[in-house]
Amino acid sequence: MFALTPEFLLTSLIMVVTPGTGALYTIAAGLARGTRASVVAAVGCTLGVVPHMLAAITGLAALLHTSAMAFQILKYAGVAYLLYMAVTTFRDKGSLTVEQESTPPSAGKVIVSGVLINLLNPKLTLFFFAFLPQFVDPGASYALAHMVVLSLVFMLLTFVVFAAYGRFAAAMRGQVISRPKVLTWMRQIFAGAFAALGAKLAFL
Predict the structure, then answer these.
(1) What does the pLDDT look like over 1-14, one tens digit per residue?
(2) For residues 138-177, b (16+ Cβ closer than 10 Å) or e, as one string?
(3) Per the domain annotation, does 31 fall within a domain?
(4) What is the pLDDT of residue 101?
(5) Taking Cα atoms as reference points, which of 201, 49, 62, 69 lies closest to residue 129?
(6) pLDDT greater than 60 at residue 97
(7) Which residue range is the domain that position 159 belongs to?
(8) What's the pLDDT band for 197 if we cut at 50, 70, 90?
(9) Are 96 and 187 in contact (CB under 8 A)?
(10) Is residue 1 part of a domain?
(11) Cα–Cα distance for residue pair 120/133, rounded to 1 Å
(12) Distances (CA, A) of 199 to 10, 17, 188
């Protein structure tokens, strides 16, 4: 029977802990609307891993790996969405604000945004394609089940780490929310970070 190896857990943890678009989105949600919003954002980002997992398991990842056009289409869709997030964050004065009457986005909208952020990340597809098979015996009868379990563990790590990022950001919210200039600065930093990540993805 298969087992989780320390190598798999360590590599997965490094992959998840390294700050990226999902972590940034969760931190922004925690700073803007507190712990509950950050957890919802973490759920959305975690669900965004599912299509990549299914792609790796069904073989779509192999197509993306061998088809330059398919990879480029997915990559630039991700770039476009990141730039959209950058513009929206920069212009949306209600995402980080001290005004209590500002209407926060619904949980559904937060989850959809989180899903799209990870859904349109071709690096995750390539990660699942290149990484997971190294820990699965292709000749074993339980190979498919093993890949599913490893993928679920990766998703669990994603949720736990992102939720921790968001919880920390929410804990710092009280130190930030009473300073309007800091809020403006934070919003600009997040917008710039989304734009930078989009540019980095575009030139991969």
Answers:
(1) 567 888 888 878 87
(2) eeeeeeeebbeebbeebbebbbebbbebbbebbeebeebb
(3) yes
(4) 42
(5) 62
(6) no
(7) 21-202
(8) confident
(9) yes
(10) no
(11) 22
(12) 28, 21, 16
Assigned domain for 195 exists: yes
Q: How many domains does the chain have?
A: 1
Q: Encode pLDDT of 62-78 as tens digits.
A: 766 677 787 778 778 87
SS (H, E, C) the chain: CCCCCHHHHHHHHHHHHCCCHHHHHHHHHHHHHCHHHHHHHHHHHHHCCHHHHHHHHHCHHHHHHHCHHHHHHHHHHHHHHHHHHHHHHHHCCCCCCCCCCCCCCCHHHHHHHHHHHHHCCHHHHHHHHHHHHHHCCCCCCCHHHHHHHHHHHHHHHHHHHHHHHHHHHHHCHHHHCCCHHHHHHHHHHHHHHHHHHHHHHHCC
Question: Does residue 120 contact residue 78 with C-beta atoms inside 8 Å?
Answer: yes
**Residue type for position 155:** M
Quick check: 184 pLDDT over 70?
yes
More confident residue, 141 or 53: 53
Q: How many CB atoms sit inside 10 A of residue 94's CB? A: 12
Q: What pLDDT, on a 0 to 100 scale, did the predictor assign at position 102? A: 56
CB 128 within 8 A of CB 56: yes
Assess if residue 122 is contained within a domain.
yes
Q: Exposed/middle/buried for 19, CB within 10 Å: 0-12, 13-18, 19+?
A: exposed
Share of the chain above pLDDT 70, in %: 82
Most distant pair of Cα atoms in the chain: their distance: 59
